[in-house]
Amino acid sequence: MNSSTVILIVVVLAVGYLSFLGVSALRARGKEEIPPNMKPPIPDDELETRRLERAQQAAVVLSAFLALALPLYFLGEADRQESFVDQFHEESVERGAELVQEFGCFACHGPNGVGGAAPFVEKRTGVNVSWMAPSLDDIFYRYTRDEINFWITYGRPNTPMPPWGVAGGGPMTEQQVEDIVNYLETIQVPQSEAVARVNDVVRAELAKLEGADAALEEIIRSQRQLIVDLEMSPTLAPIAADLAERAEKALAAAGEGLDTDGDGLSDVAEREISDITREAERAFSIPGLEPITFDPNDPASIDRPDREVAEELLATLEELVATRAPAIGPNVEAIRQALAETEGEDTDLDTIPDDAENTITAQLTAAVQAMRPAEIQVVDLDPANPATTGEPDGDVAHRVVGGLSTLSLNLGIQAENLPKLLDPAKEGLERLLTAREERRWEIDIQGVAEQVFDGDVAKAERAVGIFQGYCARCHTSGYPAGIPFSREPGSGGFGPALWEGRATVQFLTVEDLADFLVTGPRANKPYGVNGVGTGRMPAFGKILSREDLELLAQYLASGHLDGIVDHAEGGG
After folding, report:
1. Cα four-point dihedral sign 396, 399, 403, 404
2. How does pLDDT run across 175-213, given as a tens digit for each residue?
3. What is the DSSP string of 270-294?
4. Are 231 and 325 in the same domain?
5. Does residue 351 fall inside a structural domain?
6. How many whole angstroms separate alpha carbon 354 and alpha carbon 228?
7. Which parts of the chain register pLDDT below 50?
8. Do 126 and 67 sit in the same domain of this protein?
9. How far is residue 186's CA from residue 193's CA, in Å, rounded to a whole number?
10. I need a surface site. Which of 224, 266, 436, 493 has the fewest CB within 10 A?
11. Domains in the chain, number
12. Cα dihedral angle (43, 48, 51, 52), rounded to 10 degrees?
């Protein structure tokens, strides 16, 4: 039986069934009934019988049901509403986590909000710095929800923190900002952990003060290297452009020709891209700065006495530091110290101890790598292996070619805008050198101890560490950019200046000041003698102990924040 026969039978049966329904309907049709609203009313004798009683009974049952059901429903309403609130909050937290990920909040504030840094241009020097970004995993111990919402919505001007809320000019709605606040609340560390961090913060801040000179020298070296790199950009830009163009062409044609390993890159393309990366390495290498391996078992590692080679190398590197490669200064200093070493085992009797030879080799290798542009990656792709380095050759090729393209783009921009970039870079270096002379960041702990704490150095260190860790961000100009950029402690920044005992203007006693530090200023609420709060200063009562707060208050009220007796200008 074919499909046409089946369809015919189905159609016949359907027509027959519809005909049966039609005939049945006609037979059942009787005399037209009178509409209910036109019928004579039912007599009372008929109504006042069991029919009425049944209606009344049904009404009573329905009334009883409503009387019981409505209160029972009402009793569960609070729980239902609460569950709706919980559900909405959970969904809000999930949205907040997605927003934090999408907008990269932890890129600046550190993994899971533990605190971090963000790139920023320091206003006074024009130097690129790592601006301190505060921790977010303990923010609810410092600010209220409304205050946190404010910071996210409006950001913080003159810092890397932009406004995120629409009201502040950002991209997020009020609900999205609230979602982020809800999410941040879920990542708060226990209060005990937040309190325990204080000791680590104090130690870290004291170490920063002690290492300020070294940190400043590193910044100065980086700035000098930036100037040299900018000056070299007109020479290097055409070279990078040629390398990038050839690499891009090789990659574009990689699908043509023999592909032995079947990785999507032709054998010719793999060899060509590898050759270009090696050529890039040679083109951007600095004459005189080449890797040498000093063998502790061979007094003439490169066919000449190791001592002679090392001393010539040191002289060359010292000249490079002064001219082409300021950034390798620490490596050169380490090599100088290694060459001056006389103690230790000397297997090959070349007057350089074995450990010193290994140090020289390692420092020279590090110097070579430091001066090679990060965008250049040397590869040796094997046409017979689809994953030469353990990673698909196609991915490697795209990455190295992309790096060369980026290098070409950056150098091209630098060369085209050289005057606009070079002059500010030189001005920044001059300001850094001035900062090295002025040393405005200095705090004399011994002086603080003598002037504020009756000679108790431990108290002075504690007070200074707490101030630097919890107050300097707002009350010391330049501090978030790093100690070398800091002005005098308490010089004022986002918050008012605190030097020369200005805290006593608002607070009559140290105890009053300590009480204020517990809660901070609440928005539009009076504090102290004649202050009015903005709500922008954090509260410290949930993080710092009363003893620490009183120590800090005593330090602030003293007016001797840097401990230095004589000042050429300014306070402290």
Report:
1. positive
2. 999 999 999 999 999 999 999 999 999 999 999 999 999
3. HHHHHHHHHHHHHHTPPTT----PP
4. yes
5. yes
6. 35
7. 2-3, 6, 10, 568-571
8. yes
9. 15
10. 436
11. 3
12. 120
